[in-house]
Structures are given as structure tokens and as C-alpha cells.
Amino acid sequence: MRRIYESNALSRDDDEPFSPRERKTEPQAMRSVDSTGLSRRFVPDWLCHRAISVDVSTPRSTYPVGAAIPFRVTMRNAMPFPITVTTRSPILWRWNVDGLTDAAEIPLHDPPAEPQGFRFDRGERKQFGKRWHQRFRVADDEWEAAEPGTYAIGAGLNVEAPAEKGLYDETTISIEPDDA
């Protein structure tokens, strides 16, 4: 290495086009910005709640007894900037059947009460697919079949009073017995 430096092989000369030069350049792109932090500091909660819409849909409105009922939960940020909604726990959203969370009559989750942030990019749409197998959980290892009738499948963000804040939606389905 010493010979290279003593020989001036790495000389920098502005007159010779093929010799290396030091160039001072400006940064080509803006540094990344913590959009979650900016959303929490500058966007009020009421605006975060208005920016997000929740929609629950099923392919059909009537299902036979025993058939799995697929449903889709779609959440969308209508704002042209990122939004972060603060949730009550690490569980960001929940679904229910007739008000029973995860179609269970017993508590299934005991998450820590640590607030989390559910982040939506500008104009982002998030979709989640679930299935309800027409059963209600009544114990850790016991399930009851749903009777024929009308049920409401709902979903919302895990915030305090999601329906009042517009962060909840539900759809109604009917379970009809098979005609044999």
C-alpha cells in the first residue's frame, strides 16, 4: 500500500479526465420521516377516527345450517397523509357475532393494556378475511352450534366505543335450515 501512495498513482487532477476526483454532492432524496410520530403529534384523535372507514361484507346474505360463513373486513384511510390510530392493546381490531367477541361467550384473550398504534399509509386499504363456522364457544373446549335465524357479524378497531367513533361496521346474515 505504501508504494501506491508514494507513486502518486492516486493523484487527483482536474486537468486529467480519467483521474479520480472528489465530488461534493447534495443528498438525492429527503430522509425518511417517522409518519407514526407525526400522526400522533399533529393529527388530533377525532380526525384520525374520521379518516378511517370500516366495512364488513359477506358474499351472500343467506347460508345453510353448518356452512362456514366467510366475511371480509375492509379498513381504509381516506386522507392523503398517513394516519395512526391508537388502540387499547396489541390486538388492533376485533370481530364479533351478535356482540360476542370472536363468537365466544368466554374471554379468549387477555392482552396487556398497552396502547399500540394501527398505522395506515395515505389512502391505504387493509383487508382481512375471516370465517365463522356457525359455532359459539361456551368453554375452553366446548362449542355450541348456532340455531337457524338472523345474526349480525361486526368488526371494528380496538378503541374505546368504536361504534360511536365510526370505527365499527356490521352486516346481517341469515342461517336457514336445509329443506330435505
Q: Which short descriptors sum up this protein?
A:
five-stranded mixed sheet; 11% helix; elongated; three-stranded antiparallel sheet; single chain; mainly beta; Immunoglobulin-like; 180 residues
Short account of what is shown:
With 180 residues, the chain is mainly β.
Protein described:
- The protein has 180 residues and is mainly beta.
- It has one domain: Immunoglobulin-like.
- Helices cover 11% and strands 39% of the residues.
- The chain has 3 helices and 12 strands.
- It has helices spanning 2-6, 35-42, 45-51; strands at 52-57, 62-64, 69-77, 83-87, 93-97, 100-101, 116-120, 125-132, 135-139, 142-145, 149-157, 168-176.
- The strands form 4 sheets. A 5-stranded mixed β-sheet has the order 2-12-11-5-6, with no helix packed on it. Strands 1-3-8 form a 3-stranded antiparallel β-sheet. Strands 4-7 form a two-stranded antiparallel sheet.
- The longest helix has 8 residues, at 35-42.
- The protein is elongated.
- The model has no long low-confidence stretch (mean pLDDT 84).
